[in-house]
Design a protein that fits this description.
This protein is an alpha/beta fold. It has helices spanning about 20-30, 50-60, 85-90, 100-105, 125-130, 165-175, 190-200, 230-245, 260-270, 305-315, 330-340, 370-380, 390-395, 400-405; strands at about 5, 15, 40, 65, 70-75, 80-85, 105-110, 135-140, 145, 155, 180-185, 205, 210-215, 225, 250, 270-275, 280-285, 295, 320-325, 345, 350-355, 365, 385-390, 410-415. Strands 22-23-1-24 form a 4-stranded mixed sheet, covered by helices on one side. Strands 2-15-17-16 form a 4-stranded mixed sheet, with helices on one face. The protein binds ligand EPZ.
Length: about 425
């Protein structure tokens, strides 16, 4: 298993290019299942999760061709509408094939994703709403088995805001009979990116980005060419790394427009931020000021940035209160940060982080994607060497992480 060795103390400076968004690319690749014509995506990040998704689609009969960051999918012949456990267990986002397969093939067998480090991650809302659209769904032997010759439009209400739930239902509704209204829909920019792609394939969708999305089903969808939006969480992660090290970085091919809540907190922490058309620059202060936060669905502070801010607060002036309201177990990075000398007390879904003058390098272990990112940020500011184990988590969500950090002057080496 690869490890990442970080020599702390370097102030990040320079510029890097942000990759396409993992959480936009994954649903977009599944949208190709909805048509027999080829769909081409550009700016697709080369991540393990994307490779897993392409493998999953290929074993269903989708023809995949890649050329750098451009991927063309041809789902003309879907021979096997099944998502097997071996692939799904490594990537929960596989549940995103459920809606498209049911809509296109009238049947789908998708392994239950199972929990992950940050929580149980149930898919009951996906099932509840697809059932409301007429699907016969049985959950047995660890698989969701959906059958429905033709989905019917319905008024759907999800009990909580669910990002992939909204995406699954929007894709299913695109080929359903009649109108579907999704109430309490997720407003994340990745949902909007998917809606824009579906519309370019001939779908009739309005309201994406708001909490009520209306979809008029159509008979067929056609091929399209779509560019994946920039990764706002990768952007936020590098902004935090620059902030923590008192650096000065320019992130290109991205924007601050989907990060208002995060930028707000970085400004409160004492950073200087300038945004250009498709770039964002951050200059970090000598010492950060602690910032409290509470995670909530978009456009509020994203849960995927919570771990990174815990690392920032670990070395900031003052005490921060961090509330995690989306996932039930998303503080695993806290114990690892404490190994690096952080002063953190957890009480249920609230973390009290008292800034310390300095962290000390140690050996730590990554547990999930964003927790690993927070350990990288902490390692960049800790005195001495930090060795992060199980960094395959990082490779799932951060393209060319080592190269990008090296380009910004960080002292990192990947240890086989
Ligand atoms: C998406 O996960 C993202 N993944 C996650 O990013 C992100 O943290 C999450 O949204 C929240 O923003 C992708 O887009 C591929 P949810 P998703 O359904 O859709 C509960 C990362 O680091 N829930 O919005 O799985 C659920 O347990 C990943 O890139 C149900 O109870 O999250 C959670 O508490 C991690 N039943 C809350 O809702 C359901 O049927 C929000 O989950 C669905 C969800």
């Amino acid at each position: 298993m690869d490890k990442l060795l970080i020599e702390g103390g370097a102030r990040l400076s320079g510029e890097i290019t942000i990759s396409g968004a993992k959480n936009a690319a994954l649903p977009l690749l599944c949208a190709a299942l909805l048509t027999a014509e080829p769909v081409t995506f550009s700016n697709v990040p080369q991540l393990n999760d994307v490779r897993t998704m392409l493998k999953l689609l290929e074993q269903m009969g989708v023809k995949v061709s890649r050329d750098g960051d451009t991927v063309t999918l041809d789902a003309g012949e879907l021979s096997n509408p099944v998502a097997p456990y071996e692939l799904v267990k490594t990537m929960r986002a596989s549940i995103l094939v459920l809606g498209p397969l049911t809509a296109r093939c009238g049947e789908a067998r998708v392994s239950l994703p199972g929990g992950c480090a940050i929580g149980a991650r149930p898919v009951d809302q996906h099932i509840k709403c697809l059932t409301a659209m007429g699907a016969e769904i049985k959950v047995e032997h660890g698989y969701v088995h959906a059958v429905c010759p033709k989905l019917k439009g319905a008024r759907l209400f999800t009990d909580m805001v669910t990002v992939t739930g909204t995406e699954n239902l929007m894709m299913a509704a695109a080929l359903a009979q009649g109108e579907t209204v999704i109430e309490n829909a997720a407003r994340e920019p990745e949902v909007v990116d998917l809606a824009n792609c579906l519309v370019s394939m001939g779908a009739r969708i309005s309201g994406a980005g708001s909490d009520v999305i209306r979809i008029q089903g159509v008979e067929k969808l056609h091929g399209a060419v779509h560019r994946v939006m920039p990764d706002r969480i990768e952007t936020g992660t590098y902004l935090c790394a620059a902030a923590a090290t008192g650096g000065d970085v320019l992130l290109k091919r991205t924007s601050g427009s989907y990060l208002d809540a995060v930028i707000d907190k970085l400004l409160d922490a004492g950073c200087e931020i300038t945004t250009e058309r498709d770039a964002i620059r951050l200059q970090g202060p000598k010492r950060l000021t602690a910032v409290s936060l509470r995670t909530s669905p978009y456009p509020a502070f994203p849960t995927d940035m919570q771990a990174q801010f815990m690392a920032l607060n670990a070395v900031a002036e003052g005490t921060a209160v961090i509330r995690e309201t989306i996932f039930e177990n998303r503080f695993m990075h806290a114990v690892e940060l404490i190994r690096l000398g952080a002063d953190i007390r957890i009480d249920g879904n609230t973390a009290f982080v008292k800034g310390v003058p300095a962290l000390e390098g140690a050996t730590v272990m990554a547990t999930d994607l964003r927790a690993s990112a927070s350990l990288v940020i902490a390692g960049l500011v800790a005195q001495g060497e930090t060795l992060i184990d199980r960094i395959y988590h990082l490779d799932r969500g951060y393209e060319h992480l080592d190269q990008k950090l090296l380009a910004l002057g960080a002292k990192v080496t990947r240890v086989k």
